[in-house]
């Protein structure tokens, strides 16, 4: 229990650091009212998110090192089975996005507040937001919500524990992007989180959920 609580606290601190990094990456553009050069914006992003991702990766490796079956997690060669599963998960992401779009089109639910805020910031700081949403964000969020949060739970070598950790990861991912006060949009985000969690749990290589997260965010911005 103490191990779980300790890891949960570290995961919460990692999320706070991620939120702070997003704010710092926007500083050059917002402070100069859009007059900052692309080189300045990109430079600040590289420094801030480079430090963040380095720290998250080191912490993630510490979590894996203490797993009883730690060697089963990590970077793996792409094979036909992994590719097929990842493509299946990508198709599921598309279906979830289509479902969410249909609900908004029929005015069953409003545009997510998270999405509205992103679009507003895109107008104010387009380059910084593209870098955050499509480069830094997917990597950081996968390391936090999958790499750290899922490994807060013990016995990751057992299917039922991986399923439980994936479920919790999906629920909290949904809450981080939408709240229970907006249940339909929360369900959509939780569904996306469940796809990322399933991808990580199946492949045991966090790069595949990162790629899916990147593609999902890119599609949302287009």
Ordered list of secondary-structure elements with their pairings:
Layout: H1 2-31, H2 38-65, H3 80-105, H4 113-124, H5 126-148, H6 159-177, H7 183-203, H8 206-221
Question: In brief, what are we looking at here?
Answer:
This protein is mainly α and 222 residues long. It contains eight helices and no strands. The protein has helices at residues 2-31, 38-65, 80-105, 113-124, 126-148, 159-177, 183-203, 206-221.
Care to describe what's here?
With 222 residues, the chain is mostly helical. The protein has eight helices and no strands. Helix 2 (38-65) runs parallel beside helix 5, helix 5 (126-148) runs antiparallel to helix 8 (206-221) and helix 6 (159-177) packs antiparallel against helix 7 (183-203). It is globular, with a radius of gyration of 18 Å. The mean pLDDT is 90.
Key phrases:
222 residues; mainly alpha; 0% strand
Query: What is Rg?
Result: 18 Å
Count of alpha/pi helices = 8
Number of strands: 0
Task: Tell me the helix content.
Answer: over 70%
Unreliable segments of 5+ consecutive residues? none
Give the CA-based shape: globular
Task: Give a short account of the largest sheet.
Answer: none
How is the quaternary structure best described?
Answer: single chain
Q: Please report which band the strand proportion falls in: under 5%, 5-15%, 15-25%, 25-35%, 35-45% or over 45%.
A: under 5%
Overall pLDDT, averaged? 90
Helix/strand/pairing category: mainly alpha
N-to-C span: 44 Å
From N to C, what is the helix and strand string?
HHHHHHHH
């Amino acid at each position: 229990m103490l191990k779980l609580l300790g890891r949960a606290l570290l995961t919460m601190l990692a999320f706070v650091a991620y939120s702070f990094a997003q704010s710092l990456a926007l500083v050059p553009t917002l402070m100069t009212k859009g007059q900052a050069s692309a080189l300045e914006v990109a430079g600040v992003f590289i420094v801030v998110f480079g430090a963040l991702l380095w720290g998250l990766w080191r912490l993630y490796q510490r979590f894996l090192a203490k797993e009883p079956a730690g060697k089963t997690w990590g970077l793996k060669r792409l094979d036909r089975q992994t590719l097929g599963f990842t493509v299946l998960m990508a198709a599921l992401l598309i279906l979830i996005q289509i479902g969410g779009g249909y609900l908004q089109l029929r005015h069953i639910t409003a545009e997510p507040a998270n999405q509205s805020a992103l679009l507003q910031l895109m107008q104010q700081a387009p380059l910084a937001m593209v870098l955050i949403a499509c480069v830094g964000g997917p990597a950081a969020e996968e390391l936090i919500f999958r790499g750290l949060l899922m490994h807060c739970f013990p016995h990751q070598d057992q299917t039922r524990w991986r399923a439980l950790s994936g479920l919790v990861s999906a629920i909290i991912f949904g809450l981080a992007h939408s709240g229970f006060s907006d249940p339909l949009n929360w369900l959509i985000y939780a569904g996306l989180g469940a796809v990322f969690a399933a991808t990580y749990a199946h492949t045991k290589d966090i790069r595949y959920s990162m790629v899916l997260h990147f593609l999902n965010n890119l599609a949302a911005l287009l």
